[in-house]
Amino acid sequence: MDTINLFSPVQLGAYSLPNRVVMAPMTRLRAIDSIPNALMAEYYSQRASAGLIITECTMVSPMSNGYMNCPGIYLPEQIEGWRQVVDAVHQRGGKIFLQLWHSGRVSHSSLLGGKQPVAPSAIAAVGELHTPAGKVVMETPRALEKDEISEIVEQFRSGAENAKAAGFDGVELHGAFGYLIDQFLQDGSNQRTDEYGGSVENRARFLLEIVEAVSSAWGADRVGIKLSPSNTFYGMVDSNSKVTFAYVLEALTPIGLAYVHLMEPNEIDLKNQNVLNPVTPLFRPSYQGTLISNGNYTHETANSALANGDADLVSFGKLFLANPDLPKRFKLNALLNEPDFRTFYGSGEKGYTDYPFLEQAAS
């Protein structure tokens, strides 16, 4: 039997993919008034040779917002904007999932029309945000009332329906990096005493309710979820992340999702000696479905993870950002463009759609 590598075909949920090179979701902040545009369509379609593209985080409601110039999926104009993106990717033979997101406490009233951010508990996130009023420290959020929780679950379901209307191939739930789903899951940010707090079963309830709601719109085999067991962004912490995330992965197994997307710790996370490292091999036994792994992989380390059976696909962030034809470059062992950190976020094509393809670089 041939060794599995990045160019082995794979069945991911409902889809047969030609390769296992995934474009990771990356916030780029190029939407205009929360509406996707032609520049975004060009950016994503340039990268259509990925086995799967996962979009940047996308708001399911106005109260989801955590950053300026993020796209949404709750207005007709946003659906139309995303349709332009999806059509461009499909015309080049690609598959694309929309990442559904609620920032929760990682926000500020100046981004929310003057309203206080919401979270499972009134515990502020750690850090600062860029807002229309400049850089600000994040405010203490308001703890959600129980009936508001079901409203947010419905917003995720509605966002999934809207993604289907825009023509996407599926959706990914953003359950990572200290945003709302993650805030409910980890006990450092969730101090509730009702059925959404306390035990790991209760803290995972919000996540599992959203998975069920979104799966009812799409079918579970067109839904993925992103999790980051070692993330320490925005002051995230859990008293026993191994138990917490093993429970979630075991609960997700029988649902039959397209995939779970697991984040390895990054340099910031690793400054905390208590984080789990590495993540994917540790949790592989807890989840019996398809696993995508992400975390500063190279061509070589990705092939190694696939050959070892640690992961089924590997997602690439910065490398895909700087190399629109990343699969081709991997296949030819070609030189890679270096990412320009100064242009990761912001406006315009510089550092977005102007990275050269291999043929352009050669000429």
From TrEMBL:
| Keyword Oxidoreductase attached | yes
Domain of life of the source = Bacteria
Q: Which InterPro entries match?
A: Aldolase_TIM, OxRdtase_FMN_N, Oye-like
NADH:flavin oxidoreductase/NADH oxidase N-terminal domain ranges (all copies): 6-332
- SUPFAM superfamilies named in the record: FMN-linked oxidoreductases (SSF51395)
Any one GO molecular function term: oxidoreductase activity, acting on the CH-CH group of donors, NAD or NADP as acceptor
Which key words tag this protein in UniProt? Answer: Oxidoreductase
Q: Which cofactor does it need?
A: FMN
Query: Which is a Pfam family this sequence falls into?
Result: Oxidored_FMN
Q: Which GO terms describe its cellular component?
A: cytosol
Q: Which family does it belong to?
A: Belongs to the NADH:flavin oxidoreductase/NADH oxidase family.
Q: What is this protein called?
A: Alkene reductase
What organism does the record attribute this protein to?
Drouetiella hepatica Uher 2000/2452
